[in-house]
Amino acid sequence: MIDVAVKIAAIIMYCDESILNLELGNGYTIEKCYLENFPFKSEVENGKKQLNIEYMGSRLHDENGVYFICLKKEQIFQIEGPQISSGAVFTDKTFLCEDEISAYQEQETKYLHKIFSLLHLFSNGNIGTYQTFFSYKFRLYGFINSTLNHTSQNSTRNIYDERKFKLNPEEVEGCNHFLRNYETLTYDTMKPIIDEFAWGLEQSDQPTGFEQYTTALEMVLLPINQPGKKQMLSNRVAVLLGTNDDEIRYIRDKMLNFYRYRSESLHEGDTSNISKQELVEMENYVRKIIVSVMKKCKDQLDVDSGKSWNDIKSKLMDELVTDVQNKKSAGIL
Asked: Mind listing the pLDDT tens digit for each residue in 224-273?
């Protein structure tokens, strides 16, 4: 086996120093890093040594200059390397061990996607990475030194939403607990829904983001191919989030309007009702719904880790039917 030393670094966009004590897990740390000291500085600048536009909104300043909040990881992992056999043909690519290196990098990229998706569920703010840099060094057969630099780039990254992800000290502790609770089986079970929500956040086009949020709600709260979606979805969001009768009615009415806005946008091309304020309010509803259902999902998985999402959703549907019917009987819905 061959030891590979890897250094991973990325600028965490749209956040501040309040996240420095977050525990991302998997060997990652968060650090304050001045632009001049960033190990991949040339990669985040253009040919005129000016900062790339994608990072402009994430700059922080103090008396020592421009800095960013960055993630970092250094690790030694092992690969098998090229296998020598009679008649084998070796190329430069063979000696760079591209396949094994790429498999490791894909694994790390998926992990970071998961963590940032969970952070988006914990709180609002356009946190995430645009580029993640990987530098690999290893030696083959005791005399061939190889250095390999890769960049994983999120080409769909929304760089226009300037909301910063900020936490107070109590929220940092709560966020670390949230990451520990949900980064395993619960996340895997609900990943398609979480990905749909995260995809909505990536959209710089407000109507498209609004449509993705609505789809995420349908995925988590409605049976497949359900007729009468608007009323059913609105009622279910309301009973899950409302804390009193007036709030339940308010959320139901809001969701009825939101569903109408989505239909007008999707089917008629009329996006006039989808303002930035409406988009953010819809985002917050979807975030709260997904987190609420994640808690229910985790409770069931803690009892039986073999349950599928369909099993868990079926139980949730039964609960929602009862809750909505009770509110209708009471004249609330």
From this structure: 888 888 999 999 999 999 999 999 999 999 999 998 888 887 777 778 88
Residues ≥6 apart with Cβ < 8 Å to 28: 8, 71, 72, 73, 112, 115
pTM: 0.92
Residue 34 CB-half CA count within 13 A: 8
Q: Which of 211, 221, 215 is nearest to 279 (CA)?
A: 211
What phi, psi does 269 have (nearest 5°)?
A: 75, 15
Distance CA 196, CA 223 (A): 17
Distance, CA of 174 to CA of 154 (rounded, Å): 28
The crossing angle, in degrees rounded to 10, of helices 229-241 and 309-329 is: 90
31-77 residue pLDDT tens: 999 999 999 999 999 888 899 999 999 999 999 999 999 999 999 99
Rounded Cα gap, residues 160 and 157, in angstroms: 9
Amino acid, single-letter form, for residue 118: L
CA distances, 166 to each of 15, 59, 66, 260, 268 (Å): 6, 14, 19, 33, 38
Measured over the CA atoms of residue 313, residue 24, residue 105 and residue 118, the dihedral's sign is: positive
In angstroms, the CA 201 to CA 206 distance is: 10
Distance CA 3, CA 271 (A): 55
